[in-house]
Amino acid sequence: RYEHPAVDWRNRQLLSIPPELIAGFTLQRGSETLQFHRGPSISTDKEGKPVPGAFTLEHPPFPLDTVLLESLARVLGNLRAGQFHNPDYDAGLDHPVAIATLQLQSGEQHTILLGSRSDTTAALLKVDDLPVVVRASAQLGRAMTLPLEQLKDRSLFSFNPDQLTELRLVDGGLTVILQPEADHLHWSVTQP
Are 54 and 39 in contact (CB under 8 A)? Predict the structure, then answer.
């Protein structure tokens, strides 16, 4: 039970970057380069600290799904290896399918190369200047190759719930009005 080779005890967490520390990220896929950066903070949390702005793309062809972009940053910033391979392992890194570059608020930068030999079961990666090829979750490979069209905002409408002052429901001849209390966590029926 405790007889494992030394490599089994190696720390497999290669990147553990909270998304709020990511200032931007770039995805290069063939001739396409997408540069995402955080917009300015537009609100504060309950402790008064600024909430990081949403990721955006310079001149997007359509509105982007900011929740999906935040998830993409989370996936890129949280990289755990399933296996390690020798640096000369044939992962197709001489012609990577995609290259992701994370820019942190601190100025630090991380680069992830997705090898062309990756498949639906695993992503074969080169991370920064680590002297190994990494086999990781296929989810990372899918995230790095997600078509821009899939990042389209498909929501019908959105709003900041903290800015909501009244909610009105009209059903036939009955009108119900709800208003938030000062904490914006609880609501009260003010009519009928």
Answer: yes
One-letter identity of residue 135: R
Between CA 131 and CA 141 the distance in angstroms is: 20
| Contact yes or no for 143/76 (Cβ under 8 A) | yes
Neighbours of 89 (CB within 10 A): 18
Tens-place pLDDT, residues 136-169: 999 999 999 999 999 999 887 777 777 788 888 8
Q: Which of 121, 135, 139 is nearest to 93 (CA)?
A: 135
Helices (H) and strands (E) in the chain, counts: 2, 12
Decide: 137 and 119 in contact? Cβ < 8 Å. Answer: no
For residue 101, what is the enclosing H or E element? strand 98-104
pLDDT tens readout for residues 99-148:
999 999 999 999 999 999 988 899 999 999 999 999 999 999 999 999 99
Cα 89 versus chain centre, distance? 28
Q: What span, in angstroms and rounded, lies between the C-alpha atoms of 162 and 158?
A: 12
Whether the model clears a pTM of 0.85, i.e. scores above it, the answer is no
